[in-house]
Design a protein that fits this description.
alpha+beta, 2 helices, about 25% helix, PH domain-containing protein, PH_domain
């Protein structure tokens, strides 16, 4: 629900034509779980270290979340393979004004970085959180299935009888002395 007394950053924005066109192309060419326009918080690497918000088109797949600029070029991505549902966090309303973003924000934490995005509406935020949680659950289950396959494979190979002929011993050519801890080496002075 939008409140008419809400400041301009809270009002939904019209998407630029380029992002609408990118969305149309994305739907016909990829197998995305979810896609759409979100505001992405910058890293603050500019001259004034300001973390501004930029409108980007996002594509969520089972493996990654990537974002594109208005020209359709991939600007960046984060791997979703190691995310869990604990990695997705709905951010509380901020007391400070948000420059360019909205109050409906999501933080996505990965082992390598943290991405902060803002949605145009509360419903949009809930849809993105549901999609992100779906992908996180899928990847946790996929990792668990792969671990079970590895465990099962190692159990079946360890049950085979050990054949010492299969693993021949390789002996060192260095002569040892009577003490098993010492190795006789030629003297550099000789």
């Amino acid at each position: 629900m939008l409140n008419s007394s809400c400041p301009p950053p809270c009002q939904p924005r019209r998407l630029p034509f380029q992002l609408v066109e990118i969305a149309r192309l994305a739907r016909t060419t990829t197998n995305n779980v979810k896609e759409g326009a979100l505001f992405k918080q910058g890293a603050g690497g500019g001259l004034f270290k300001r973390k501004n918000w930029k409108l980007r088109f996002f594509e969520l797949t089972l493996d990654e979340l990537r974002y594109l600029n208005s020209a359709g070029e991939v600007k960046g991505s984060i791997s979703m393979r190691y995310c869990t549902t604990d990695s997705i966090e709905i951010m509380p309303d901020s007391d400070r004004p948000i420059h360019g973003g909205t109050i409906w924000r999501i933080a996505i934490s990965t082992p390598c970085r943290r991405l902060l995005v803002a949605c145009a509406s509360e419903d949009d935020m809930e849809a993105w959180v549901d999609a992100l949680n779906y992908v996180a659950d899928y990847n946790v289950k996929r990792t668990h299935r792969n671990m079970c396959k590895i465990s099962f494979a190692s159990e079946t190979t360890s049950e085979k009888a050990f054949d010492p002929q299969q693993y021949p011993r390789h002996h060192s050519s260095i002569a040892t002395t009577a003490s098993s801890d010492c190795v006789a080496l030629p003297s550099p002075l000789a």
